[in-house]
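My current task is to audit a protein record that another person submitted. Please read both lines and tell me whether the tokens look consistent with the sequence. Do not assume that whoever made the record got everything right. I have pasted the whole thing underneath without changing anything:

===
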Amino acid sequence: MNTKHHIQKVLLLGSGALKIGQAGEFDYSGSQALKALKEEGIETILVNPNIATVQTSEGIADKVYFQPVTPTFVESIIRKERPDGILLSFGGQTALNCGVSLYQNGVLEKYGVHVLGTPVQAIIDTEDREQFVKRLDEIDVKTIKSKACKDIEEVRDAANELGFPVILRAAYALGGLGSGFCDNEEELLQQAEEAFSFSPQVLVEKSLKGWKEIEYEVVRDAYDNCITVCNMENFDPLGIHTGESIVVAPSQTLTNHEYHKLRSIAIRIIRHIGIIGECNVQYALDPYSDDYRVIEVNARLSRSSALASKATGYPLAFVAAKLSLGYGLFELKNSVTKTTSAFFEPALDYVVCKIPRWDLSKFHGVSHQLGSSMKSVGEVMAIGRTFEEALQKGLRMIGQGMHGFVENKEFQIEHLLDKLSHATDERIFIISEAMQWGYTVEQIHQFTKIDRWFLQKLKHIIDIDLQLKGNAPLAMLTNEMEHSEFMEILESSEILELLYKAKVYGFSDFQIARALGLETQMKMEDALLLVRKWRKELNIMPAVNQIDTLAAEYPAQTNYLYLTYL
């Protein structure tokens, strides 16, 4: 039934208490959903104990309950407010689990509350690992060979049947809690005990460590129209939680065949399960063939959804909320451009990098090794014309005193090869160090299993850095020189090309100054002013443009980001 004319009051479940792996991304999605409902004149009731979030600010929701997102509290709020509908997909795993519990206990039926958007059965089909595999088997979509277990004895039998190494996943768990790779029975039993502390169901899966990890953000309306808004690729291979990995959008290493194959499978999945709104499909892709496995489907807004929205300019949460009310994609306008339809797939002529931020150094005794369970406490997003530029911008923004991929403060790296083989929170800088020590792309690939394309791009940054270090004429330029002599050296084609290339590939003035050794000749503040002076003399200046700025004027050319080096 089309609900858009029958819903007067909606209850939205927020993300629960602030915790690692569940914070800003769900504040973003919840705020967008509330704005969409307000635009329709619908009264909104929000349940969210996070008092320091945007969605709990005055004027976003009509009424806010600062209560835990648990079935007991939410039922009492439903009894008091009597909403017509409820939205479960905008508060992460906490809201989803709560909504499923309310549905199974008969609370929603008792008070006549309609679940808007994705039906609860579809949510259960994606969250219950055993049911999920059965549903995808119905349409011949490959999943990782696995067994759903309810006790430790079943876990042991499943691991012996599948063969080590295996990965354990806890169902209905947030941020990969309780998950981990096991190479033997001792590790298996230890991990199983932890996994069962988070969930009554644990999935034992055959390990696909080393495969590529790819994600697609897919949108479907009640009329069965589907689009893929964005696809993303993890810098790290399978084995590291998506929240722990650098993520690049759009994917950079897929062939055209692989891209369209995974896209068509994602659309088949969302149609078969019956999701209405937005969902995230995660794949493992064999780097040596086009063989794939579906890892999981999130029938909700996720961390990746927030990234995809900001990367493309397509307001996923806003559109998903409208679709939950019964609108079709063809009926909605892009809220950024106000002219184009929401029924289009954004075209990215730029690269977006998401880089995690850890604070592990604040905790004594904690392991710095990364795995399938999240430890990161935040992330940054950087945009550039090239992967190198976006990466270097992002590394400067994570607030750990780094200036990019190169020219950082020196830090001792003991057991370099071990740290290359086993990912830590300093992995990207360890790769930089290894390349500067002379390790080749092929050698680093063997240790890390990171795709050679990414490693070649990192080596490109190292090569530019070496060119700067070896440029004697540029290092000799000073403010005391006669202007004619100064310009004669500066305007040589080799120097002009080198400075331009450095800026295009994400080098800051600080990195250029340090590579040239200027900080040994003068204060760094003076060195920065000198490099800036060179750029201005050669007209190498940054420019910033916004995603979708041209779309309103040129509707056919939507979703472009025009920016140069920064």
The chain has four domains: 9-116, 145-206, 212-348, 349-566. The CA atoms of residues 393 and 445 lie 24 Å apart.
